[in-house]
Design a protein that fits this description.
Number of helices: 13
Structural class: mainly alpha
Distance between the termini: 11 Å
Mean pLDDT: 84
Helix content: over 70%
CATH class of the largest domain: Mainly Alpha
Oligomer: single chain
Number of strands: 0
CATH topology of the largest domain: MetI-like fold
CATH architecture of the largest domain: Orthogonal Bundle
């Protein structure tokens, strides 16, 4: 198990290296992309552009420029924005990351509880009236865009009902956990539920299908022949094997959302997270911030996949020999 974990972590490091090189080449080696011209401004003369290119080291060979950028980003942590001169990339990401992590972690807890509970209840009651009801609610939740649902939630909680039923819901925004845990949770409860609604439906449907298949396997028939109760068979035997695709989905979804895929939810609820920072930097073609955000997102995606692989090995020992 330890050697399996070491191999996965090593491969994750190699993937991070490859991503950094690929992103650097896309934004710095693409014909027509000249960061120096953007830094210098529209009315800059060729002489000024040449001076800016030399000052920022943009006239050096690509491998050296990549090494310098990685050094300034990860070692010295003084990589600065090309648009907001003097504004460092790392502090911007460290300010936005807690917002996104707060949103995604809270939503993930909710969607995992609802998704697993819904899938288990639907599988345990397959063929009864509650099964199609749960599946209908699941597919309805999957079909509703997060930004539309978020706008509806804001319209209800901040509109005419705000002074009556939803008077406890604060205006959109973010309060740090360290400042006030209660206000932190109140500001995030609606974003949590909005983001969790989409994924809870997906997880419930996937888990229900996996459990139904697992309940027809030979080892389940053997367990029934031994006299075990259906509840014990479902929770102790079928559920463990059925969680493997759920673990895979969770790793991919969690990594992507933390990396910036929660952008629409952040925008709707006024949360200054990594998704919003990435979107702004792309609009301004702020290459250092883009590089920092991409590496931040890649780190969580790669980390989530490594954790998923290790969780696979725990749930299914056969994976360890791969």
């Amino acid at each position: 198990m330890l050697w399996f974990a070491v191999r996965r972590i090593t491969s994750a490091i190699l993937v991070m290296f490859s991503i950094s090189v690929l992103v650097f080449l896309i934004f710095f080696a693409t014909p027509g992309v000249d960061p120096a011209a953007r830094i210098a401004g529209r009315s800059a003369t060729p002489a000024i552009i040449a001076q800016v290119r030399h000052a920022f080291g943009l006239d050096r060979p690509l491998p050296i420029r990549w090494a310098l950028m990685m050094d300034h980003l990860f070692i010295k942590q003084d990589l600065s924005s090309y648009v907001n001169i003097g504004s460092r990339v790392v502090p911007q990401i460290t300010q936005a990351a807690p917002v996104t992590l707060s949103l995604v972690i809270g939503a993930a807890v909710i969607w995992m509880i609802l998704g697993v509970a819904g899938g288990v209840i639907a599988a345990a009651n397959r063929g009864r009236f509650i099964d199609p009801i749960i599946m209908f609610v699941g597919i309805a939740a999957v079909s509703v865009p997060a930004y539309w649902l978020g706008e509806v939630v804001n319209l209800i909680t901040q509109g005419g009902l705000h002074h009556s039923i939803f008077s406890w819901v604060p205006p959109s925004g973010f309060v740090p956990l360290t400042q006030s845990p209660g206000e932190w949770a109140l500001h995030l409860i609606m974003p949590w539920l909005t983001l969790a609604a989409l994924y809870a439906g997906i997880y419930a449907r996937v888990l229900r299908a996996e459990l139904v298949n697992a309940l027809n396997e030979d080892y389940v028939r053997t367990a029934r022949a031994k006299g075990l109760s259906e509840r014990r068979i479902l929770l102790r035997h079928a559920l463990r094997c059925s969680l493997i695709p759920i673990v895979s989905l969770f790793g991919l979804d969690f990594g992507a959302l933390v990396g910036g895929a929660a952008l629409l939810t952040e925008v709707v609820f006024g949360l200054p997270g990594v998704g919003l920072l990435t979107y702004t930097s792309l609009q301004n073609l702020d290459l250092p911030v883009i590089m920092g955000c991409v590496m931040y997102g890649a780190f969580f995606v790669v980390l989530a996949n490594a954790v998923v692989d290790i969780a696979y090995a725990f749930l299914d020992p056969r994976v360890r020999v791969v």
